[in-house]
Amino acid sequence: MKVGFVGLGRMGKPMALRLARQGVEVVAYNRSQGVLQEVAQEGIEPAASPLDAAKRLIPPRVVWLMVPAGDVVDEMIWGEQGVLGGLQARDIVIDGGNSHYTDSVRRAEALAPQGVDYLDVGTSGGLEGAANGVSLTIGGPRGAFEACRPIFEALAVSDGFAHVGESGAGHFAKMVHNAMEYAMLQVIGEGFWLLEQSEYEFDLAQVAHAWNHGGVIRSWLLGLAERAFSDRQQFDEISDYVGGGETGEWGIQEARRLHVPTPLMDLAVNERLLSQAGESFARRVVAALRLQFGGHEVRTR
Predict the structure, then answer these.
(1) Which residue ranges does the record assign to the 6-phosphogluconate dehydrogenase C-terminal domain (predicted)?
(2) Is position 300 within any domain?
(3) pLDDT attached to residue 300
(4) Annotated catalytic residue 181
(5) 13-to-1, 44, 234, 262 alpha-carbon distances in Å
(6) Do 12 and 160 have their domain in common?
């Protein structure tokens, strides 16, 4: 199988490399030519534009977009050098980024008259997952999902992907996932802040390690907390500014639309908005965890 892959950023590059290492032929485009030269050494075929990537594929064509949410997704599809110029009926466009689910519905409806299917894919797992296997929630036509099953099998961990519904469902599920993530990060940060403020001189990495071996709250995030605390000098240099938050805010908006109370998610999103107003150990933990799992930018003190 041959796949076009557009966007070789923090997540896109390791995912494209994983596809290639799993035996999938990959034609890739990225605005930074340096990254293209790097992946070319791993057997990935570089393309001059999204359109060029699409034209190099064999029907039925599949193009995976891994770019930031918003107008750039539309540009990669409908722009002068967008993939659509190289596609025809029965081809498939996959958006693996964090697009708003309503944008995914709009794009699917706009492509349908041309016979091009659109799959919205919520991609989770951070940098480690991108390299070693992600979790995928997939929305869109069942037939397109089945046609792309070999791609999902190559990218995901075992049992790590599912067709969750019609167009928009994949990104809706990822939006909720991220809102839940914010709340989980926040409670971990607050718990370790409580330990830090106590009269006991806790080794936070040691506590995280113990909890993560048999404790009820054991988790991958707790393992990342142990890793973050293991280099205390680096942790102490991290500002409590926490970036991101867009998908969490979308989740809160949907909760209000659907009349679902989400007090913990609300508080977690608000903490992010407050992160520029005063020092908070809990927010520093959240920033450190986001650096660990996603390579997200942190500010230093």
Answers:
(1) 170-301
(2) no
(3) 77
(4) yes
(5) 19, 11, 26, 35
(6) yes
Residue from 80, 109, 146, 181 carrying the catalytic annotation: 181
Q: What are the 10-residue block averages of pLDDT along the chain, 301 residues in total?
A: 97 98 98 94 97 98 98 98 98 98 99 98 95 98 98 98 99 97 95 97 98 98 96 88 84 97 93 70 85 81 66
Catalytic residue among 2, 109, 153, 174: 174
The residue range of the domain holding 145 is: 2-165
User: 268: domain CATH number?
Assistant: 1.10.1040.10
Find tokens 């407050």 and name the residue: 274
Q: What is the pTM of this model?
A: 0.91
Residue 192 and residue 203: Cα distance in Å, rounded? Answer: 10
Closest CA to 53 of 80, 30, 24: 30
Q: Which of 151, 149, 156 is nearest to 131 (CA)?
A: 156
What per-residue confidence (pLDDT) applies to 276? 58
What is the structure's pLDDT at 294?
83
